[in-house]
Amino acid sequence: MSTATPTLIPFDDRDGMIWLDGKLIPWRDAKMHVLTHALHYASAVFEGERAYSGVIFKSRQHSERLKKSAQILDFEIPYTVEEIDRAKAETLKANNLTEAYVRPIAWRGSEMMGVSAQKNRIHLAVATWAWPAYFSPELRAKGIRLCMAKYRRPAPDTAPTASKAAGLYMICTISKHQAERDGFQDAMMLDYRGQIAEATGANVFFVMNGELHTPKPDCFLDGLTRRTVIDLARARQLKVIERAIMPDEMGKASECFLTGTAAEITPVGEIGTYKFTPGKITHTLWDDFQALVRKPA
Question: Catalytic site residue 31?
């Protein structure tokens, strides 16, 4: 069995097209200056979306959230929700993709360099690329392993937690790197109060006594996949409880899974010292989710 490390294809050196500020351009030409405000001050917002069979799942809701995230960061994206939706569809088509990840991102440019940047031009780009399953079938079968993260999700009065802002993800990157170095696939983050919050890029659900429990998203993003899963669970007559969950309550859960655009529905087998077994509820919701995203338009 080969143990060779797969060759990474850098994201700045690929074939294809990227939509940038109103037009499609060659992938390698989509560049910005080193003194761009977003690079220095994290003034950027983005979305993570998936296309299934050529259709972007909940495209409009993602575009609406992108616009709202920008407003929270005190800038206005100079395109309507409809124009953003069209840009995503055009980029997907230009790259001849049907199963893909879709990444729109908006950011402040390089006109002013400093904390204040009120006259900076606002840019918008959309990229799409092929993205296979986030975890292998073997990992999905037994559930991924998570450690507990050192960093906590901040309080709403200390950071723009209702936005999908680039700067909010640095503690996620640090936490996931440490988890992977320690042999885990991800890390579970607490919030500023010490309650269960989310993984580094996905929301979390627990099955307790046949009911679905999930943290109330009052200081982290209320994921669109999270909302979809809640709707699917209720359609199955499953009771869904959104509440504060303390870490020691994980001992009461029989099943656990993550939800997100990249993760979709990912079973969890372990969080720290707590063990779970992917079971009927997790598998049923996975099947329902796949049926939904691949339903003919």
Answer: no
